[in-house]
């Protein structure tokens, strides 16, 4: 009986550990970090590094978070979770090949989390837009576990979305705007901005022409309105080029966020406990 | 027999120590937090009070430590964090005093955070959930300050009068003195006249500059009207000289910008004037109310 009582006292979770979890659950991440850093001896290095990585992850500091997760040693029960969180945070930090941190698992763990590894690797390859390599990884998706089956399907959906997307060229947008002001923005998908640019250019061109017609090309009025029109016209061409670049950037950014979410959700489901 | 007794003693000691761990920890943590608070180390004190609240098993101590933690955030001027901490605390199964402390502290933090709508909502919850008039009237002064900040001076005056009636019902001399003091504080001649920003915008829509004049900035109003007048004249001259296209479009663009800008400016100036007037009046009110009615 004495042994049972002593064992129970030993296996009960550490109150400091539980309190850190309580702070994290209450979104008091800065306080949790402060407490862990000041009381590292109460947790042990591995647990402290895991908890620090976890709280920095919620503070949206992926670089620092990944750094702390990387310090969790193989002897720790948090090792597997730490590697997956490290990989996820490196993905948030826009690092490449973040699946490689999962390649150090022992054979048992590697076999157990093989599908998760495929998911992370697939996400990395899709962010790199390496479709051929992604397709070969996706061929191994088993869709056999609630924790990540939906996300594996989501990655394939994103892959199909990328297949359908029409590439837009900034040079074509600039050329279109040179021929018809505003057409480049229309091509970039900004229809309202395109029509507004067309209208403004026409008005300014009309003013410049009227002043040329009434006072001649040497008149200060024509020089004034002609210069304004020239600036608007040139600015519109440059704006159209940037519109396409911006469109491509925002489209890629949105898709990359969706890809990262397909890793984020299962990692949280499996290891955020 | 002797070894059996020793065995039983060890078992009881182990059980007691594992059960008392939480309570003992919470008390020593709270003592540490108190000492940190006393030395002005509010951030760490806030963490330790939260830890004490987490470890303790008694609901009264839990609330007490949570309130102390929120007090630390108040000292750090992190009012929202204090509000967040209290907002997750369940108000069920608390007695009148506890509900009062919880809601009053939340309202005070919201008031300091200048979120007067939220502060009022906490005070309304307090009045609804606390079944003790004395406690409700204890929070009345804070409610008056909140109403003042919302330019609701008439309601503030009525609340203050009700508080005076409740507190000094048995002492007519004090009651009458206080009543006079309240009436003079909220004398209509002293209360700032709050102007309506929407009305200012409407005025500027019909006559450019009129909204600014209504807001109390006649110089800006006249300038706005004159600027639009000059632009309109320039447009007319352009038309006379047969620069139809340039005049009409240039005039329209510039006049439109000035006109729309004037409407927004009128709204902004009215709000600015309201703020400045009420700030100085509320400041004086706060000084008198806190010194005389607390």
Description:
The complex is a heterodimer of chains A (273) and B (294). Chain A is mainly α and 273 residues long. Chain A has 15 helices and no strands. Chain A has helices at 2-11, 15-25, 29-38, 40-43, 45-58, 62-70, 79-92, 107-112, 114-127, 131-138, 149-164, 170-179, 183-187, 191-215, 220-271. In chain A, helix 2 (15-25) packs antiparallel against helix 3 (29-38) and helix 6 packs antiparallel against helix 7. The longest helix of chain A is centred in the C-terminal third of the chain and has 52 residues, at 220-271. The model of chain A is unreliable at 1-11 (pLDDT under 50). Chain B has helices spanning 2-38, 42-55, 59-75, 79-87, 96-112, 116-129, 133-138, 140-149, 153-167, 172-185, 197-206, 210-215, 218-240, 244-293. Chain B is mainly α. Chain B contains 14 helices and no strands. In chain B, 33% of the residues are buried. Helix content of chain B is 82%, strand content 0%.
Secondary structure elements and their pairing?
The complex is a heterodimer of chains A (273) and B (294).
Chain A: H1 2-11, H2 15-25, H3 29-38, H4 40-43, H5 45-58, H6 62-70, H7 79-92, H8 107-112, H9 114-127, H10 131-138, H11 149-164, H12 170-179, H13 183-187, H14 191-215, H15 220-271
Helix pairs in contact in A: 2-3, 3-5, 5-6, 5-7, 6-7, 7-15, 9-10, 9-11, 9-15, 11-15, 12-15, 14-15
Chain B: H1 2-38, H2 42-55, H3 59-75, H4 79-87, H5 96-112, H6 116-129, H7 133-138, H8 140-149, H9 153-167, H10 172-185, H11 197-206, H12 210-215, H13 218-240, H14 244-293
Helix pairs in contact in B: 1-2, 2-3, 3-4, 3-5, 4-5, 5-6, 6-8, 8-9, 8-14, 9-10, 11-14, 13-14
CA radius of gyration of chain A is 28 Å
Q: In percent terms, what proportion of residues of chain B is strand?
A: under 5%
Helix content of chain B: over 70%
The biggest sheet of chain A, with number of strands, parallel, antiparallel or mixed sense and barrel status, is:
none
Q: What's the average pLDDT of chain B?
A: 88
Enumerate the spans of chain B where pLDDT stays under 50 for 5 or more consecutive residues.
9-23
């Amino acid at each position: 009986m004495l042994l049972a009582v002593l064992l129970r006292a030993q296996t009960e979770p550490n109150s400091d550990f539980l309190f850190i979890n309580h702070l994290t659950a209450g979104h008091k991440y800065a306080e949790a970090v402060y407490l862990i850093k000041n009381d590292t001896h109460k947790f042990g290095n591995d647990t402290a590094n895991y908890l620090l990585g976890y709280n920095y992850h919620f503070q949206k500091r992926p670089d620092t978070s990944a750094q702390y997760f990387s310090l969790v040693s193989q002897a720790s029960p948090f090792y597997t979770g730490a590697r997956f969180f490290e990989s996820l945070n490196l993905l948030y930090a826009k690092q490449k090949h973040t699946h490689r941190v999962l390649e150090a698992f022992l054979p048992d763990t590697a076999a157990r989390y093989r599908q998760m590894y495929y998911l992370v690797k697939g996400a990395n390859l899709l962010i790199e837009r390496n479709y051929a390599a992604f397709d070969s990884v996706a061929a191994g998706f088993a869709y056999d576990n609630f924790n990540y089956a939906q996300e594996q399907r989501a990655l394939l959906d994103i892959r199909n979305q990328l297949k359908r997307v029409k590439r837009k060229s900034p040079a074509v947008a600039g050329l279109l705007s040179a021929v018809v002001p505003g057409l480049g923005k229309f091509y970039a998908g900004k229809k309202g901005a395109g029509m507004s640019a067309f209208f403004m250019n026409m008005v300014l061109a009309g003013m410049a022409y009227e002043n040329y017609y009434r006072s001649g090309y040497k008149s200060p009025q024509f020089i004034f309105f002609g210069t304004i029109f020239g600036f608007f016209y040139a600015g519109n061409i440059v704006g159209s080029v940037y519109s396409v670049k911006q469109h491509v950037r925002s489209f890629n950014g949105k898709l990359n966020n969706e890809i990262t979410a397909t890793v984020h959700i299962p990692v949280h489901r499996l290891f955020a406990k | 027999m002797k070894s059996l007794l020793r065995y039983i003693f060890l078992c009881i000691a182990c059980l007691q120590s594992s059960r008392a761990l939480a309570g003992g920890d919470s008390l020593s943590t709270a003592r540490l937090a108190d000492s940190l608070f006393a030395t002005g180390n509010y951030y760490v004190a806030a963490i330790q009070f939260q830890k004490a609240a987490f470890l303790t098993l008694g609901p009264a101590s839990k609330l007490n430590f949570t309130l102390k933690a929120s007090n630390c955030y108040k000292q750090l001027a992190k009012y929202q964090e204090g509000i967040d901490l209290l907002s997750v605390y369940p108000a069920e199964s608390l007695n009148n005093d506890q509900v009062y402390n919880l809601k009053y502290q939340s309202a005070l933090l919201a008031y300091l955070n200048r979120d007067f709508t939220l502060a009022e909502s906490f005070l309304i919850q307090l009045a609804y959930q606390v079944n003790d008039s004395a406690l409700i009237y204890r929070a009345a002064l804070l409610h008056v300050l909140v109403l003042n900040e919302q330019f609701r001076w008439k309601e503030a005056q009525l609340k203050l009068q009700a508080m005076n009636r409740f507190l000094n019902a048995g002492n007519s001399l004090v009651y009458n003195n206080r009543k006079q003091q309240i009436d003079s504080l909220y004398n209509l001649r002293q209360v700032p006249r709050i102007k309506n920003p929407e009305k200012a915008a409407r005025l500027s829509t019909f006559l450019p500059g009129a909204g600014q004049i209504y807001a109390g900035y006649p110089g800006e109003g006249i300038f706005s009207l004159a600027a639009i007048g000059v632009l309109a004249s320039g447009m007319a001259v352009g038309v006379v000289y047969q620069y139809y296209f340039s005049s009409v479009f240039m005039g329209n663009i510039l006049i439109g910008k000035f006109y729309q800008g004037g409407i927004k400016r009128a709204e902004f100036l009215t709000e600015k004037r309201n703020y400045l007037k009420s700030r100085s009046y509320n400041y004086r009110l706060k000084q008198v109310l806190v010194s005389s009615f607390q």
